[in-house]
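Need residues for this backbone.
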């Protein structure tokens, strides 16, 4: 990657923080703009190439009782995002074993997601394959979560080799959390932009400018998909979905970046902060799994209990639900970033996050109970 260094003679006695912003802006514009343009352009080109091909290979989403949309929608968003990231990172990101293994594992997860989009694979086969991909990160790149920080208020919690198992489980959780949140137009893309954009922001605040290029490339590669998925200016018949290939790729990318940025001496932020910036996909997944288990169902059995379903049932339009959830996710991420920047003790940050989760669980559970009671009353009147 071309690196341009900018030096500013401070004869005007410009405040240091303003100098930092000027220098950072110059570095980002001169060094990252070509990579971002390539990621954006390749992503668009991939969409245009795959749009006419998708129906012929069965890579389309057919409307069902749960999937209410008009016509067969191409499931090519994930492939377009990955292609943009692959080309841009190959050309502009410094080569390393970690980057190579990230791209290999991403290619495998996109392949799995594409097969799932076409053939609707079983839950078991998906989990096994996801575990294999997670193992590439843990054993191949030797990246795993071993240090949870001072979340107990004393010395840092060191997981040791148990961190290997913990990381694989965290990888499975992240992949499926983003897969589950992909329920209305734009939501998985928006959650990915908020989370990965937050990681880039934390890299910037930590002065880790060498780490900022990959998350920014990923965010920019998502934008063309986002336009084709949600824009009202999109020509009729050109709508696309992210598909399981995309949502799984986003989940893998998020856990890879979070692990890379929270572990080791050069970590950009503390592990507890990761909870805040992945909050909505994580909280929504845990809440819905708890609900399914209480009802005696498989935690992976699809239903209409996710946050976006709840808002739709409450009368929100799909667009308003998207904006509401995105703003909520962004707000929680900003809180987490603020706690990190203010160096609030990790145990306080963790307890605040747990409080947010409990509040969410109480509110959403109350709504579920009211809906069930209303459904029972309706059924009784019918008979």
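Answer:
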């Amino acid at each position: 990657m071309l690196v341009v260094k900018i030096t500013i003679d401070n004869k005007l006695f410009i405040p240091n923080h303003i100098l930092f912003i000027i220098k950072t802006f110059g570095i980002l514009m001169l060094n990252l703009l070509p990579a971002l343009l390539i990621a954006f352009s390749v992503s668009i080109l991939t969409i245009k190439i795959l749009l006419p091909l998708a129906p012929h290979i069965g890579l389309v989403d057919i409307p069902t009782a749960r999937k209410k949309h008009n016509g067969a929608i191409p499931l090519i968003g994930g492939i377009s995002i990955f292609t943009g990231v692959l080309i841009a990172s190959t050309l502009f990101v410094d080569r390393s074993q970690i980057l190579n293994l990230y791209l290999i594992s991403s290619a495998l997860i996109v392949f799995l997601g594409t097969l799932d989009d076409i053939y609707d694979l079983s839950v078991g086969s998906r989990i096994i394959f996801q575990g294999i991909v997670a193992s590439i990160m843990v054993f191949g790149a030797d990246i795993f979560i071993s240090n949870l920080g001072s979340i107990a208020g004393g010395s840092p919690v060191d997981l040791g080799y148990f961190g290997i198992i913990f990381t694989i489980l965290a990888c499975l959780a992240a992949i499926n959390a983003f897969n589950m949140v992909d329920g209305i137009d734009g939501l998985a893309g928006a959650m990915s932009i908020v989370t990965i954009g937050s990681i880039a922001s934390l890299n910037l605040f930590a002065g880790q400018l060498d780490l900022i290029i990959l998350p920014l490339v990923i965010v920019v590669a998502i934008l063309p998909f986002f336009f084709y998925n949600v824009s009202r200016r999109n020509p009729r018949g050109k709508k696309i979905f992210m598909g399981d290939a995309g949502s799984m790729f986003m989940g893998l990318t998020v856990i890879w970046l979070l692990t890379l940025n929270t572990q080791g001496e050069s970590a950009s932020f503390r592990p507890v902060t990761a909870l805040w910036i992945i909050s909505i996909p994580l909280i929504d997944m845990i809440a819905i799994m708890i609900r399914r288990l209480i009802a005696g169902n498989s935690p992976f059995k699809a239903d209409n209990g996710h946050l976006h379903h709840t808002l739709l049932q409450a009368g929100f339009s799909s667009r308003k639900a998207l904006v509401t959830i995105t703003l909520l996710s962004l707000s929680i991420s900003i809180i987490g970033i603020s706690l990190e920047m203010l160096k609030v003790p990790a145990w306080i940050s963790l307890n605040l996050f747990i409080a947010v989760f409990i509040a969410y669980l109480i509110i959403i559970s109350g709504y579920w109970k009211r809906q069930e009671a209303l459904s029972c009353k309706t059924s009784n009147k019918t008979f």
